[in-house]
Design a protein that fits this description.
Length: about 90
């Protein structure tokens, strides 16, 4: 499952911190969010990595920034917690 970066967006995606995300859909404003995360080193061009990094940086506050239709499950390795989220209208 990878749409934006077919060569590097394989899922589930594991972040540098060990967090794991399974994601479906698209966050339309991922380029803007990527720019807000300018201090981060990205390994792909896919929106999945942007969602992962945003959730790691802002926690559930990142959900207010996402515009699109999506659903995800994020395993936070350090906290031992599973966070699931979806777009406001439940399209995905």
């Amino acid at each position: 499952m990878s749409i934006v970066d077919l060569a590097h967006g394989a899922q589930p995606m594991v972040g540098e911190s060990g967090n794991v995300i399974a994601y479906n859909g698209e966050v339309y404003n991922h380029p803007e969010i990527r720019a807000e995360l300018s201090g981060e080193h990205f390994q792909t061009h896919c929106d999945t990595e942007v969602v992962l990094r945003a959730l790691e940086k802002w926690g559930t506050g990142a959900l207010d920034r996402f515009r699109g239709m999506f659903a995800f499950a994020l395993w936070d390795e350090q906290r031992g917690e599973l966070l699931c989220g979806r777009d406001r209208f439940g399209i995905k």
